[in-house]
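anyone seen this seq b4? input:
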Amino acid sequence: MILLIRIWGDPILTKKAKAVDRITAKERQLIADMMETMEAADGAGLAAPQVGVAQRIFVFRIGEEMHALINPKITLREGKRVQPEGCLSIPGVQANVERAARVVITGRDERNKTVEYECEDSEEQGRAASAAQHELDHLDGVLFLDRAQTDTISWLIEAEDEEGEEVIEMLETSPQEILQAYKTRRLPRDVHIQEMLWERLEK
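predicted toks r here
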């Protein structure tokens, strides 16, 4: 089942999630639904608070494979890398964020098995390292804009170049302007947002 993605302004997104004491059929179903939702939204990761559940669970991609982590913890961070990020709960927005270039993260999977993943951003793994750190932040009530380089925070605007080709232009903004736009449902014209998230904003 595709779940409703919470949009910034929802209080659950800025609260610390609770540890999972027992992994039951309810948690396993939640994880299955989160994976389906992440796939539908073409996301790199999705945390339980983003679908209204204040538990320390997230799903993410390592390459083409999807994985779940319950009560995750990063045990190693190496290097630094600055890259643009976005978020399904802050649609239409992008900003540069500094993250560790490589992380080792551990937790339990949906079968209650202890797992550990070595993640990096690479051609093979995609944005695995960034996604793991981004989603773990969600479990602590931290959004990527809290870590973003403020002068890079921008709306993604659909436009055309001189040859009529579709392009994405950057329109500088601020966290305060973004939050107000979501609250009032008055977003910039031609902002680039996926259809399923547009539907969420229109409700």
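The mean pLDDT is 95. Strands lie at 45-47, 57-62, 65-78, 81-85, 93-99, 102-108, 114-122, 126-127, 154-160, 166-172. kinda curious what u guys think
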